[in-house]
Amino acid sequence: MKKIILVITLSLSVLGFGQGNTHTQQAGKFEGLAMTPPMGWNSWNTFATNIDEKLVKETADIMVSSGLAAAGYNYIVLDDGWMTKERDSNGDLVADPVKFPNGMKALIDYVHGKGLKFGLYNCAGTQTCAGYPGTRGYEYQDARFYAKLGIDFLKYDWCNTKGITAPEAYTTMSNALKTAGRPIVFSLCEWGDNQPWEWGKPVGNLWRISGDIYPCFDCEFKHPENWSSWGFMKIAEMRKDIRKYSGPDHWNDFDMMEVGNEMNDTEDKSHFAMWCMLSSPLFTGNDYRKMSKETLAILTNKEMIAVNQDKLGIQGFKYSAEDGLEVWVKPLSDNNWAVTFLNRSDVAKKINFDWKKHSFKDVDFGYEADFSKTVFKLKDLWKNKETGNTKKNFVADLASHDSVTLRLIP
Fold first, then answer.
1. Which of 44, 47, 220, 313 could hold 79 in an S-S bridge, CB 3.0 to 4.6 Å?
2. Active site residue: 212, 249, 268, 402, which one?
3. What separation in angstroms does the CA of 85 have from each of 44, 127, 144?
4. What are 4-58's pLDDT values in tens digits?
5. How far apart are CA 311 and CA 227, in angstroms?
6. Cβ atoms of 254 and 276 closer than 8 Å
């Protein structure tokens, strides 16, 4: 009798083991929430964890009154540091009562009342990068918490994640958000370490492709903890051959912008131009309360934003580089093109571009501009005026780190 029981137990054990490995987790993000690159403001670049209710309300007020909201910036995203160091007795996250005395729901309602959208931050690991409670093991609970609060955007980081894989962790959170039922844009922030462009499309609406940005043109800033932040041109060229993975509702994210933070206006202008050319999400990271009129003019340039928000959603690419002068091109709808001439060098350069000697070919998406066959009008997008056509050379002087962006119209 004992032998028979042993055999039955073993058989059930083997059967159970086999069945337990037949199900594959399927991703299921909310589709269609980011058909053009999302635009907004994120607290991290300037404020890190020094955030509070007053800052958010003032930012929302200025976003509306300054014309930023009208230009398309409609997300306010609170990054790391919005919560207490411990969850409550039910395991829920708790907004820091000192920073947010009226609670997070009241603040979100305030932002929504301005016609804006609201986002929060968390992390796939046991703790966030700044040491606050992470989401590991609480994915579905946290997703329900966010849905109940009424947020519209979740930035999901990748600190303290030993023992888990990025595709699985992000897929779990994506499914949790979908199950909770509120449409929330899902931003994957694992720095490109696990090639999210290869698996992220069904999981999230955008994914970071690099480590953190730094307010400089082309530098590497080495932190004492043995990691680096990067100047915007370093990030622009950090990954090769990934533009084919980016498009409507699945964007390569080149990080929050540093426009208005420590660089000069010329470099800010080139930074903004590159993010528009690359179809990157446009999240400002500056203090609106101290923003200069020059910074505001850069961030609200409608012609440049139209390049970023073009319905084709094609990421631009570097066409040529010679003696520090680079040419970046981006196919646009209606057979238009955007072309940015960028002076990467430390000295002034003169552009003398003979269109007849060039043709643009987009090998990833199949677009082509042959200037020997088609004449294009040229529109300078920073000056907002036409400047000839492709029958004649384009001639201009560019200061160090400066750029000029043209729209080519057949």
1. 44
2. 212
3. 18, 9, 20
4. 433 333 333 333 444 566 666 666 899 999 999 999 999 999 999 999 999 999 9
5. 36
6. no
Q: Token pair of 179, please?
A: 């199950």
96 included as an active-site residue: no
Place of tokens 């056509």: 389
**Distance (Å, whole) CA 204 – CA 200:** 6
N- to C-terminal Cα separation, the chain: 88
- Residue 303's φ and ψ, nearest 5 degrees, are -65, -40
Specify the amino acid at residue 363: V
Identify the residue whose tokens are 């970071």: 208
pLDDT at position 74 is 98
Distance between CA atoms of residues 183 and 171, nearest Å = 16
Q: How far is it, in rounded angstroms, from Cα 232 to Cα 116?
A: 27
The reported pTM is 0.93
* CA–CA gap between residue 8 and residue 282 (Å, rounded): 61
- Cβ atoms 408, 336 nearer than 8 A: yes
Domain annotation for the chain: domains and CATH numbers: 39-308 (3.20.20.70), 317-409 (2.60.40.1180)
Q: Considering the candidates 96, 157, 253, 287, report the single residue annotated as catalytic.
A: 157
Splitting the chain (410 residues) into consecutive groups of 10 residues, what average pLDDT does each group show? 38 44 74 98 98 98 98 98 98 98 98 98 98 98 98 98 98 97 98 97 98 97 94 97 98 98 98 98 98 98 98 98 97 98 98 97 98 97 97 98 98
Q: State yes or no: is 253 an active-site residue.
A: no
- Work out whether the CA dihedral 46, 48, 53, 56 comes out positive or negative: positive
C-alpha to C-alpha distance for 223 and 230, rounded to whole angstroms: 11
